[in-house]
Structures are given as structure tokens and as C-alpha cells.
Design goal:
Blueprint lengths: L2 E10 L2 E11 L4 E5 L6 H9 L6 E6 L2 E2 L10 E4 L11 H11 L4 H14 L15 H13 L5 E5 L7 H18 L2 E6 L2 H7 L2 E6 L2 E6 L1 H6 L4 H6 L4 E3 L18 E4 L4 E5 L10 E10 L3 E8 L2 E8 L10 E6 L1 E5 L4 E5 L12
Parallel strand pairs: 3-8, 3-9, 6-7, 7-8
Antiparallel strand pairs: 1-2, 1-4, 4-5, 9-10, 11-12, 12-18, 13-17, 14-15, 14-17, 15-16, 18-19
Length: 354
């Protein structure tokens, strides 16, 4: 299903929950609605499902405006974060529920349920009740039930929120594979960056009811369009005055400009380790955190705490050690614009995002 939203708005009393949101979703894509709690993600999802009515704006499925269509006529499957399974029904009957409502034949119901049992890895659990299943298994039943009537659009409201971290990671990969196999257009709400980046074809960043940016996970990380997106995605340090960072003096043409510096923008090493001495500053190692494949290094430079990574192949730094710090680039923004800028003192400029 191709989805288009134009000028979507929603108030709850005096609270403007969704503010003039516009987007399109290509058929077969898996989209992550990502943002802080209370930002408007679930309100958008519920309006798409027909569970909430927009104040104004259009929701268009395959060229047809569906604002006035009830949920059951929109061709939608919905997966809730709390599973919402029928406790008194077996796995088989939970999955079959939507098909029975549509008055499908017993043979069609049995064939479709068994197909989904196989697809979702629930074979052998057909006669069990929800309380006899693990959290991950219950969520798989919820997915199967949503897919049973063969919807054109699958909506998922924080589908892994009630599941522990280890199972959640396993289900992310499973969901990605399932959606690819079924080929259904899907939209899921999450506030977990890692989840959105790992699972989604595209991400829509929602903040205070507005769509800040839509794009692939890589594009959003590489080229954030707003200061909020830049600060929300990934780890970073915000410097209020970019000119305080060596190599960025005069950035912003004299206008007050802030710098957002991500770990991969920074390189650290022993004093005199860098050839580009003119672009480096002296810093002090504050903390080291072992991350398995690398060190996460917290360093203080001119009263600013920066965070970066250092390979295990290089000489290990020590807390309290004086080191050289090179900020290769920074995301800069002021009241007029935002951009990525290279350190202008580097003797041998490196390409952005090597």
C-alpha cells in the first residue's frame, strides 16, 4: 500500500499533539516513527488506523482518502505493545479471530493459520494459551493475528516495549526478515534509536508533534536537517560557542553558532602523535570505558568534556594523561542554518564521513 499524509493536525483539548505533518511512504517499505515520549508518534499511528480522527488534513491510501472510513475498512493490521491477545483463546484461535470475523471458510481459516504458524516460528504451540507462552512468543502470535486477514498496511505501536532486552534484539532481526518475506508496507513506533536504525528502511523523526526529518537511517545520521535531529541521533557533545573549538574560529560569519561534536569526529592520541599539530589541542583523559572492540574515551579540553573512541590496536591511554585532541569536523548550527564543517587548520583535509 502507498501511503500519503497531507497537513495532518490533531488537538487533545488545548494540546496540539500533531502539527501539520506531511509525508509519503512507498509500498513495501518499513518505516520507523522515532522520537521522544509524548512527541506525537502514537497519535499519528492511531489516526492512520482510524482509532483517532484528525482535526484536519488528509490520509490517503492508494490514492483514496480514508479519513471517514472505519478501521475495519482500511485494510490495516495493528500490533499493540501489550500484545492484546485473548486470554481465553488458544494460539490457533487468536490468529484465526480476524478470519472468523470476515466469515472465511473453515478450510481457508485452517490453511491461513497454519501458514502463519509456520512463518512466525510457532509450530507446535497452536493449542497453547497466552499464559503458557514467553513474551517473545506472545508477540509473534500478535504479529500472526494482525497478518491473518492479509492487510495492506501493518501498524505497530512499540511492539517490543514489553519484552526483555535479549529477546527484543532477536525479534528485531526476525521482524525485518518477516516484513521482507511478506512484502507488506509497515509503520512502527519506537523511542529506541538502535531499534529504528536496525529495522527500518526509513526513519521519520517526530518531535513536539512535528516531522523533523524523514530519510534512511544513514542519511539522517550523516546529514541531520535540524539541531534536534543532530542532538537526538547518536552520542554527541554540544558546545555553545563553536569558536572555542580549535579550527572552527569564525564559524558562522560572526553570528552566535553552536557546535555538535560526535565521537567519530574526534581523534585522540599521545602528545605529538599527530602530524597536524596546528589543528590539535591539549586535553586530559578523564575516564576510559572498555567496549569490547574499542575504548570509549572521555577527555576534557578547555573545560569541555568530549567523548570519542580509540582502537584496541593503539597504545592504551590512562586516566589523567595529557593527550592531543583533534576535532576533524563538527555539526554547526545557528538561528539561520545548519551545516557540517571541517577543521580549517588541518593540513591534510579528510573527506566527510570516511
Amino acid at each position: 500500500m502507498h501511503v500519503e499524509v497531507r497537513g495532518l493536525n490533531k488537538h487533545f483539548g488545548d494540546f496540539h499533539a500533531v502539527k501539520d505533518v506531511n509525508f509519503t511512504i512507498t509500498k513495501g517499505h518499513l518505516i520507523g516513527l522515532l522520537g521522544p515520549s509524548g512527541g506525537g508518534k502514537t497519535s499519528i499511528l492511531r489516526m492512520l488506523a482510524g482509532l483517532e480522527t484528525p482535526d484536519n488534513g488528509e490520509i490517503i491510501f492508494h490514492g483514496q482518502t480514508v479519513n471517514n472510513l472505519p478501521p475495519q475498512e482500511r485494510g490495516i493490521g495493528f500490533v499493540f505493545q501489550n500484545y492484546a491477545l485473548f486470554k481465553h483463546m488458544t494460539v490457533f484461535d487468536n490468529i484465526a479471530f480476524g478470519l472468523k470475523v470476515k466469515k472465511a471458510s473453515k478450510t481457508a481459516i485452517r490453511d491461513r493459520v497454519m501458514e502463519l504458524v509456520e512463518l512466525t516460528g510457532l509450530k507446535g504451540f497452536e493449542k497453547r494459551y497466552p499464559h503458557q507462552l514467553s513474551g517473545g512468543q506472545r508477540q509473534r502470535v500478535a504479529f500472526a493475528r494482525a497478518l491473518a486477514p492479509e492487510p495492506q498496511l501493518l501498524l505497530l505501536d512499540e511492539p517490543f516495549a514489553a519484552i526483555d532486552a535479549k529477546i527484543r534484539q532477536e525479534l528485531r532481526a526476525w521482524l525485518r526478515e518477516l516484513i521482507e518475506r511478506v512484502g507488506i508496507t509497515s509503520i512502527f513506533v519506537t523511542h529506541d534509536q538502535d531499534e529504528a536504525i536496525e529495522v527500518a528502511d526509513e526513519i521519520m523523526i517526530i518531535n513536539q508533534g512535528q516531522l523533523e526529518q524523514k530519510g534512511t537511517p544513514w542519511d539522517i545520521y550523516k546529514e541531520p536537517k535540524t539541531p534536534f535531529v543532530a542532538t537526538f541521533i547518536g552520542e554527541s557533545t554540544l558546545i555553545e560557542d563553536a569558536s572555542e573549538v580549535k579550527g572552527f574560529k569564525g564559524a558562522g560569519d560572526g553570528k552566535p553558532t553552536k557546535a555538535l561534536i560526535r565521537p567519530e569526529y574526534i581523534e585522540v592520541g599521545n602528545l605529538h602523535e599527530f602530524k597536524m599539530a596546528s589543528a590539535t589541542e591539549k586535553g586530559v583523559v578523564k575516564h576510559l570505558h572498555f567496549r569490547g572492540s574499542e575504548w570509549l574515551v572521555e577527555v576534557e579540553v578547555n573545560s569541555h568534556k568530549l567523548v570519542t573512541y580509540r582502537s584496541l590496536e593503539k597504545e592504551t591511554l590512562q586516566p589523567g594523561q595529557d593527550i592531543s585532541v583533534l576535532v576533524h569536523r563538527a555539526y554547526l548550527f545557528n538561528d539561520e542554518r545548519s551545516w557540517i564543517q571541517e577543521n580549517n587548520l588541518k593540513e591534510d583535509p579528510m573527506p566527510i564521513f570516511i
